[in-house]
């Protein structure tokens, strides 16, 4: 996973640090071949380059073109093992070549091969997400991950973090597209998650040069990469005016399917989802249906049956059987379980503990219990 | 000269203890007036006007003389109006308005009581500690306000003379009229009057929570209930004093003392036999909770001594107030230090706390959707600090009761039946910890847990796998063993088996769901 740094990297970082429109960067690279030559032309103040660049952009490039800055880029890239992927490189992911505004330069941390997987789905949603939304994101990601689907998301808190976690739990590698330089983690709380992603052979990727701060306008723009890398997008939870809607918009513009998790119809957390469903978003009915729609299902019947009969197998006492039987109808509160099983409270409690330890059931907030899938 | 000095015995209160105070009166001809010395507080200084009016309205004269009243020992601060009565009596004797009959022994008598302008004797605070101190100081007769008589009635070996007017005292001194002594009330008869404030038969459903409070009461464990608004957390908490074993005489005395000096005893009531239930509001200050103020008064933790301290809306309490609970929770005693006063108050109580699972209250509810985001919930939960949680053995969730069960006519088990099981478990514990100074499982330290809670090998296996799969912390491990000990005691078994451990693990469910 060690990043192979080449001597041109610092010039790439310099070029990216000005945050030019991708088309402009493509144009420059088209004329000069690579970023090093762009740099040399710029430093010599050649008239042709000044024709291409507006005065505002020149100021931005000027600011970072000292030797100290180049050294700083180099140090940061070495320290954080950041490698560079250019549009011209053969390793550059095909999926990103096909979108508008393909990033000309990508900074990668981790395993860039992830982007080449044929099974990539993006998951997006609110940062201030509900508990239900986060649980759903985690579960969906985990189930997809078990079918070797990589999840791409934005490493924000809320739904993004849950999606990454779920994907890691399911065993596949996950891709995080950042809105800042890779020397930073935004939000800082997710540092541990970033390390987990890297440890899980995943990838952190950004079009922003190391040292770039997480400015607000970066995020909607990087969402085109999230949508671009994936085959389809799943919207887990969004309010009406949510940043996640920009990802949806990018996905639709790129001609990709958008699956919308329905959520609680009464919950304000899911208002954006409901609006999108009214406008014709694809109703999310389960991970298997997505897999089927995308022709990614390996052997459909086997999976379903496994879940169905796990409960029957694990019961070793009559009490456990009674509890499992009651829970087959769905999640239940403690008092309901007491009535359904007819056990006395202390016996029911110890039975639940044993079932929890053996991983057959799980406890949910609100004194609810359910079978573990 | 000496004849003009009259000495009477009275008592003051410092902390929870009474101390003897000699009321000395010296009257001499000169500029008429009265001076009270010996570190009196404002209410004592004002007593000269009450005493003056009361004496005149009882048919005696205030001769125009210069009167000095000294409250000895002179270096201890005295508070409260309970010295009115001894001052008035001593002045009347000094002024020769009253000549005590020869058979009255004033050296073995103590007086306390507040006077009204018309001469009536009003009740005062702190009678119980004063009477106890009187007995220790060899007093034979105590003259006190009628409304405080019940409070003193439980102390054996004293003649308690309740009075309601200064005239009664005058006639008694002059030998004209006897005062009917207060009858002794033995503790055993009082005990039967113990009230059950809320009976458990009034609780519908909530079988899980009922079991949890039974276990908590049986081991004296602190408890935290988390549940949606209206799930009945307060009601459950109010049941706990009723299922705890009845107070012993010593416990009743300790608790009554504290209530007596705070003036929290209902007028005319005797020794407290019902365990106290204190539920301070969540805006309570540190001083009101722990004790304090200028005169270092006891706080709610001491008023709840031998009873239940109920903190509803736990996260809404100020951080300082919650952290200050740690010392009384650990030591069962609280030291209150102020510039002018220092006092130690007993505060061995069972902490019962209740809170919502999130700011809006409906996290995890299947009846209403929660409006909070996980970071909001985390911030809310984090207001309860780890060290405090650490001292709470049972942490349970309380679910709201479905309407169908509220209307159910079948009565639930009564408090008396639960109290009997709790009592049996407590007796087992008392026998086990005889001579160690401990009396319930909640007081076990980590080393004690090793000694007394050794589980069967099967139970150890279960607990170890629970620690792995449910990701329990080491401190949860110790708590589970303690609670399992109590569960075993409830079923009368000597060894802690895997069933007990498995049930005890359920009382740590919040660790897994909320404070991860």
Poorly predicted segments of chain A: 301-311
Structural class of chain B: alpha/beta
Distance between the termini of chain B: 80 Å
Sketch the major β-sheet of chain B: 5 strands, parallel
Number of strands of chain B: 18
Portion of residues in beta strands of chain A equals 5-15%
Uncertain parts of chain B: none
Provide key terms for this protein:
heterodimer; A: about 375 residues; Arc Repressor Mutant, subunit A; 3-stranded antiparallel beta sheet; elongated; B: about 525 residues; alpha/beta; Ribosomal Protein S5, domain 2; Rossmann fold; 5-stranded parallel beta sheet; 18 strands
Topology overview:
The complex is a heterodimer of chains A (373) and B (516).
Chain A: H1 9-17, H2 22-32, H3 35-43, H4 47-52, H5 55-63, H6 67-79, E1 82-86, H7 94-97, E2 105-110, E3 120-125, H8 131-146, E4 150-153, H9 159-170, E5 175-177, H10 191-199, E6 203-206, H11 218-229, E7 232-237, H12 244-253, E8 257-260, H13 271-278, E9 282-283, H14 287-293, H15 300-314, H16 318-327, E10 332-333, H17 334-341, H18 345-357, E11 361-364, E12 368-371
Parallel strand pairs in A: 3-4, 3-7, 4-5, 5-6, 7-8, 8-9
Antiparallel strand pairs in A: 1-2, 2-6, 10-12, 11-12
Helix pairs in contact in A: 1-3, 1-6, 8-9, 11-12
Chain B: E1 5-14, E2 17-28, E3 33-37, H1 42-45, H2 47-57, E4 66-72, H3 84-94, E5 109-111, E6 114-115, E7 121-122, H4 127-136, E8 141-145, H5 149-152, E9 159-163, H6 166-173, H7 187-191, H8 207-219, E10 223-227, H9 233-243, H10 249-261, E11 277-278, H11 286-290, E12 291-292, E13 297-298, H12 300-303, E14 308-312, H13 319-324, H14 326-331, E15 333-337, E16 342-346, E17 350-355, H15 374-381, H16 386-390, E18 394-398, H17 403-406, H18 415-432, H19 446-452, H20 457-469, H21 474-490, H22 498-506, H23 509-513
Parallel strand pairs in B: 3-4, 5-8, 8-9, 10-17, 10-18, 11-14, 14-17
Antiparallel strand pairs in B: 1-2, 2-4, 6-7, 12-13, 15-16
Helix pairs in contact in B: 2-3, 8-9, 8-18, 8-21, 20-22, 21-22
């Amino acid at each position: 996973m060690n990043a192979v740094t080449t001597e041109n990297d610092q010039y790439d970082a310099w070029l990216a640090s000005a945050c030019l429109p991708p088309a402009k960067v493509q144009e420059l690279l088209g004329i000069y071949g690579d970023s090093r030559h762009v740099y040399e032309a710029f430093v010599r103040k050649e008239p042709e380059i000044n024709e291409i660049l507006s005065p505002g952009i020149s100021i931005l490039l000027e600011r970072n073109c000292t030797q100290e800055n180049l050294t700083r880029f180099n140090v940061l890239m070495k320290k954080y093992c950041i490698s560079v992927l250019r549009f011209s490189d053969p390793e550059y992911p095909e999926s990103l070549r096909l979108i508008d505004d393909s990033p000309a330069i990508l900074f990668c941390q981790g395993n860039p091969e992830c982007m080449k997987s044929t099974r990539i789905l993006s998951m997006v949603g609110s940062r201030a997400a509900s508990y239900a939304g986060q649980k759903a994101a985690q579960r969906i990601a985990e189930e997809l991950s078990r079918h070797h689907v990589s999840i791409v998301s934005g490493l924000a808190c809320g739904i993004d973090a849950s999606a990454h976690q779920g994907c890691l739990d399911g065993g596949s590698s996950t891709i995080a597209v950042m809105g800042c330089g890779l020397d930073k983690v935004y939000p800082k709380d997710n540092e541990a998650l970033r390390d987990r992603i890297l440890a899980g052979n995943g990838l952190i990727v950004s079009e922003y040069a190391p040292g770039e701060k997480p400015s607000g306008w970066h995020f909607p723009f990087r969402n085109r990469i999230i949508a671009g890398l994936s085959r389809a997008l799943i919207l887990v939870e969004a309010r009406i005016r949510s940043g996640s809607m920009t990802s949806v918009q990018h996905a639709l513009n790129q001609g990709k399917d958008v699956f919308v998790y329905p959520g609680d119809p009464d919950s304000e957390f899911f208002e954006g989802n409901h609006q999108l469903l009214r406008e014709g978003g694809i109703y999310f009915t389960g991970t298997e249906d997505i897999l089927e729609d995308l022709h990614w299902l390996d052997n459909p019947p086997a999976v379903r049956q496994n879940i169905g009969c796990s409960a029957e197998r694990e019961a070793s006492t009559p009490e456990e059987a009674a509890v499992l039987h009651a829970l087959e109808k769905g999640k239940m509160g403690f008092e309901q379980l007491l009535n359904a099983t007819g056990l006395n409270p202390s016996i029911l409690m110890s039975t639940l503990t044993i079932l929890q330890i053996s991983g057959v059931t799980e406890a949910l907030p609100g004194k609810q219990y359910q079978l573990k899938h | 000269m000496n004849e003009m000095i009259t000495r009477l015995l009275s008592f003051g209160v410092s902390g929870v203890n009474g101390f003897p105070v000699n009321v000395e009166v010296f009257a001499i001809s000169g500029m008429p007036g009265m001076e009270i010395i010996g570190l009196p507080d404002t209410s004592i200084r004002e007593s000269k006007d009450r005493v003056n009016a009361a004496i005149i309205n009882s048919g005696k004269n205030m001769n125009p003389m210069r009167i000095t009243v000294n409250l000895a020992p002179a270096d201890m601060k005295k508070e409260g109006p309970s010295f009115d009565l001894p001052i008035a009596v001593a002045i009347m004797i000094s002024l020769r308005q009253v000549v005590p009959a020869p058979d009255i022994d004033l050296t073995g008598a103590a007086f306390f009581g507040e006077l009204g302008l018309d001469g009536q004797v009003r009740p005062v605070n702190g009678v119980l500690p004063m009477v106890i101190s009187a007995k220790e100081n060899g007093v034979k007769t105590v003259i006190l306000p009628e409304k405080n008589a019940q409070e003193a009635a439980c102390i054996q070996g004293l003649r308690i003379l309740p009075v309601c007017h200064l005239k009664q005292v005058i006639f008694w001194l002059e030998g004209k009229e006897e005062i009917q002594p207060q009858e002794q009330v033995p503790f055993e008869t009082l005990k039967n009057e113990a009230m059950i404030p809320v009976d458990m038969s009034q609780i519908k459903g909530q079988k899980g929570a009922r079991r949890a409070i039974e276990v908590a009461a049986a081991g004296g464990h602190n408890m935290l209930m988390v549940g949606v608004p209206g799930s009945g957390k307060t009601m459950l908490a109010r049941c706990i004093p009723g299922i705890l074993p009845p107070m012993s005489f010593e416990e009743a005395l300790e608790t009554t003392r504290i209530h007596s000096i705070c003036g929290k005893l209902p007028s005319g009531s005797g020794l407290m036999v019902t365990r106290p239930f204190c539920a301070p509001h969540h805006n309570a200050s540190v001083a009101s909770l722990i004790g304090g103020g200028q005169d270092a008064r006891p706080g709610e933790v001491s008023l709840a001594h031998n009873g239940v301290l109920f903190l509803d809306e736990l996260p809404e309490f100020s951080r300082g107030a919650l952290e200050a609970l740690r010392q009384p929770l650990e030591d069962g005693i609280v030291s209150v230090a102020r510039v002018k006063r220092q006092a130690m108050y007993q505060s061995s109580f069972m902490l019962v706390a209740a809170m919502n699972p999130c700011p809006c209250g409906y996290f995890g509810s299947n009846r209403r959707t929660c409006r909070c985001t996980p970071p909001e919930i985390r911030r809310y939960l984090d207001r309860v600090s780890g060290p405090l949680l650490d001292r709470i053995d049972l942490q349970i969730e309380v679910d709201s009761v479905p309407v169908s069960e509220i209307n159910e006519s079948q009565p639930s088990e009564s408090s008396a039946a639960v109290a009997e099981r709790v009592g049996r478990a407590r007796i087992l514990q008392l026998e086990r910890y005889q001579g160690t100074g401990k009396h319930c499982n909640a007081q076990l330290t980590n080393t004690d847990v090793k000694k007394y809670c050794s589980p069967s090998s099967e139970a150890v296996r279960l607990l170890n796998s629970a620690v792995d799969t449910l990701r329990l912390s080491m401190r949860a491990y110790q708590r589970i063993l303690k609670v399992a000990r109590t569960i075993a005691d409830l079923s009368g078994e000597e060894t802690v088996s895997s069933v007990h451990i498995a049930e005890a693990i359920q009382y740590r469910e919040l660790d897994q769901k909320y404070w991860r």
